[in-house]
Amino acid sequence: MRSRSARDKPVIKLLKRCLLSNPSQILHFMYCSSCCRRTLLLGAVTLLLIYIVWIFLSGDHYVSTKHEASHYWCGYGPAMSDFVPKQRPMYETEDYPPNVSYAYRNQWVGFPDMEQVDCNQAFNSSVKNNWFPQTVPRIFPHQFKAASANCNEFIRDFGFLRYPKVSEEEENFPLAFIVLFYKDLDQVLFLLRAIYRPHNVYCLSVDTKSSVEFLDAVRSVSKCLPNVFVASKLESIVYAGFSRLMADINCMEDLLQHPIKWKYVVNLPGQQFPLRSNLELVKIFQLYNGANDVEGITGKRMMAMRFMWRHDYVTNNVTGDVRLVSSGIKNRPPPHGIDIVKGSAYGTFSRDFIDFVINHQIAKDFLEWCKTVLSPDEYFWATLHHSKVVNVPGGYTGVPDTKPWLSTYASWGGGGDPCATIRIRSVCIFSPEDLPLLINRKEMFANKFYITHHPAVLHCLDQLLYNVTFSGSTRDLKQYQDLPFALKTSLKL
Ligand SMILES: *[C@@H]1O[C@H](CO)[C@@H](O)[C@H](O)[C@H]1NC(C)=O
Ligand SMILES: *[C@@H]1O[C@H](CO)[C@@H](O)[C@H](O)[C@H]1NC(C)=O
Ligand SMILES: *[C@@H]1O[C@H](CO)[C@@H](O)[C@H](O)[C@H]1NC(C)=O
Ligand SMILES: *[C@@H]1O[C@H](CO)[C@@H](O)[C@H](O)[C@H]1NC(C)=O
């Protein structure tokens, strides 16, 4: 079919003629003309090479260096076939770093629907909850899924780059955060945005009992944020059960392998909210000097029945619910002569401590022992941190109960702590009337908030935190100096 005259004519001219006269002839021509066949082949090979180099450069190739990609790429499930290189979001340079008026105009601070709320009123001690809107429009998982289909738009619309560029001090002191949740993705992302910085790292642990759509939306959102990932192993969380502890441990294993060399990790439930800016956290953790910040309770408040007796998992064969019941059989004593100390499930942990927890045999043995304990998350961290038997990194061997604990403020019923509205399982759910109290706390986070319960409290805390961050100022750092648990000798961090 190849015409002799065609070979003699300049290819371009021929192509032009071919296209003009009969576009369908073009492929036929290119294939039949031997010169074009070579060019085509060369082009295809070049494109393939460029594609391979591009994948290598743009994909997160560090993943496959030491660890199995399938393990690290938590977010994408265990099968290699699920592996998708993370698309790096491209930021509109003129949007970043923003300025205050630009951020407010784009409704990146607080809830867009509470724009009219005067937060300065909220910090006045005579604040009343009924001065504020009682609800905020919800954003549902399917909406986040749709919005995150375009990462640039998602990041812009939801204000994930609303803060100014991080300072060098913060950049040299990256933090890791673990967020555990099973519902209210809008509240979780409101929290995530408050603590989000491009140089930190965030592990999301979602209860596997949440719906497929929910988990799908979480994965979709996390794909847009290069330093946010879903834990490689998710747990079905049983109330007061061992799986709650494992959710944190799984994230910590992932975080230790992550290329961002974070110095401290803070674990949070989706219902906490920060009281300090990232810069303040960094400055406070530097004062800790390698020490962990873990609560410690001994004596009568330890609820010893929870670990003296073995607890078994019992499945309700009608509802399918799993719960823990005391078996009436005594637990064997803790391994290695460790003394049990109670504390919160939440804390601030140095990298060295987490390395010990994940890799040291004594920590592994103690974790195994915790399997039959009721609420083991309230014993595991506190016991290791306060152990006199094992010299754990960043630990504390003084009297646990007298040591301050600054990670999280919760207002417990019975503890004499005030609460403006309701308590659920003894813990206050904060509202604007609690704000004058909250802003004077020295803890770094507060627990709990419900997006459905006076959400203006979240709106105003977010605004306060945003303004503090933007100003680059730090508040009352003096009160963190000379903490009894801070390490005296300078540790290499
Ligand atoms: C704030 O930032 C926006 C977007 O970058 C810019 O257009 C605007 O001029 C800035 N305003 C001020 C006062 O710097
Ligand atoms: C607090 O609110 C009261 C009553 O609205 C007002 O009289 C007072 O000036 C306010 N205080 C501050 C510091 O804004
Ligand atoms: C459900 O559990 C009860 C005891 O708790 C048992 O008697 C009953 O046979 C069980 N039903 C089924 C369908 O397994
Ligand atoms: C934060 O800054 C904005 C803009 O300057 C201001 O309107 C708002 O009242 C401030 N809010 C708080 C809580 O500081």
Automatic annotation (TrEMBL):
Bilayer topology term: Single-pass type II membrane protein
Cell location: Membrane
Pathway participation: Protein modification; protein glycosylation
GO CC annotation terms, alphabetical: membrane
Predominant location category: membrane
Keywords: Glycoprotein, Glycosyltransferase, Membrane, Signal-anchor, Transferase, Transmembrane, Transmembrane helix
Domain of life: Eukaryota
TM stretches of this protein: 39-57
Molecular function GO labels: acetylglucosaminyltransferase activity
UniProt key word Transmembrane helix: yes
PANTHER family: GLYCOSYLTRANSFERASE 14 FAMILY MEMBER, PROTEIN XYLOSYLTRANSFERASE
Family: Belongs to the glycosyltransferase 14 family.
The name this protein goes by in its record: Beta-1,3-galactosyl-O-glycosyl-glycoprotein beta-1,6-N-acetylglucosaminyltransferase 4-like isoform X1
Record organism: Biomphalaria glabrata
Lineage, opening ranks: Eukaryota, Metazoa, Spiralia, Lophotrochozoa, Mollusca
